[in-house]
Amino acid sequence: xxxxxxxxxxxxxxxxxxxxxxxxxxxxxxxxxxxxLRRLTPRLPDRRRTGRLFVRxxxxxxxxxxxxxxxxxxxxxxxxxxxALRLVLIVLLILALPAAVVIALGxxx
Length: 109
Known about the structure:
The chain is mainly α.
């Protein structure tokens, strides 16, 4: 009986070892493929990575957008009497602001 168990255990261990070797080959193949793809894939130059949150616009451009937006909101609030119309115009301003910024300042990647 114990010889039979030893034979089964040896078969299980041999099968597990074969499975481990197959997985190791698959991992190695996947790693080779990744390194090859990394070498072949073009990357952006490192000079574009500044570590800042708002890399597309300078501080002055962002300040200008904020100041002009606040001036537009103040003008809407001062010149329009109806509260519902004021809110609608401010919402439209907020929705149109990204497009206006791209048109005025250009799109940077």
